[in-house]
Write a structure and sequence with these properties.
By secondary structure, the protein is an all-alpha fold. It contains 5 helices and no strands. Helix 3 packs antiparallel against helix 4.
């Protein structure tokens, strides 16, 4: 169509309304369309329309943990507690070699627990992540008795206990910080970098 005053070509848009309601102007992924259902599927098949009712977004179902995974989790958790108790004993005896070997054993067990984190709830995994971050790149020979006791307490009380709540994750971070261990070490800048 040409504009009469200037002679330029102008595009005009036409609003088309269906008998079922308003057609969306954009293509949206179906998983994000919560308050309406697509009337015509891309394959051309008709679908039922639910007006006013939010669509149920399909959630990825996670399979129930196997008995062997739960057994392995308990085994590695018991191992981690044993290594932490050896760290406490070595710190009391002021044995740096004992501290170092117990610390390495603890870190290995925590790595296996991380592999099995899907057996427990998300907050448990977050708590384990903070403990691992606090212990990463540490010289275990220099750990104090208080640091060793804090790690043991976290493993026994929080990771080895029952249901973990969101506020428990905050308590664990606070306990680690109080004894001089940084739970944010994995995401913070190295010393002297800023």
């Amino acid at each position: 169509m040409a504009e009469p005053a200037t002679g330029e070509t102008v595009c005009a848009s036409v609003l088309v309304a269906s008998t079922l309601g308003i057609l969306p102007n954009t293509k949206v992924q179906e998983a994000r369309c919560m308050y309406y259902d697509v009337v015509h599927h891309r394959s051309g098949m008709e679908r039922r329309r639910a007006l006013g009712v939010p669509r149920q977004v399909a959630r990825k179902e996670t399979p129930a943990p196997s008995v062997s995974d739960r057994y392995a989790l308990r085994k590695y958790l018991d191992g981690a507690v044993s290594w932490a108790r050896l760290m406490v004993a070595a710190a009391k005896e002021q044995d740096p070699m004992g501290l170092a070997s117990a610390g390495i054993g603890l870190v290995e067990n925590l790595g296996e627990l991380w592999r099995l984190r899907s057996v427990r709830q998300d907050d448990w995994g977050a708590m384990l992540n903070f403990v691992q971050a606090a212990l990463s790149k540490e010289e275990f020979e220099r750990f104090t008795l208080g640091q060793c006791q804090a790690v043991e307490s976290i493993l026994v009380t929080y990771l080895g206990g029952g249901l973990v709540r969101e506020e428990d994750v905050g308590r664990v971070r606070l306990m680690l910080r109080e004894v001089g261990l940084d739970p944010w070490k994995g995401v913070s800048a190295p010393k002297g970098a800023i």
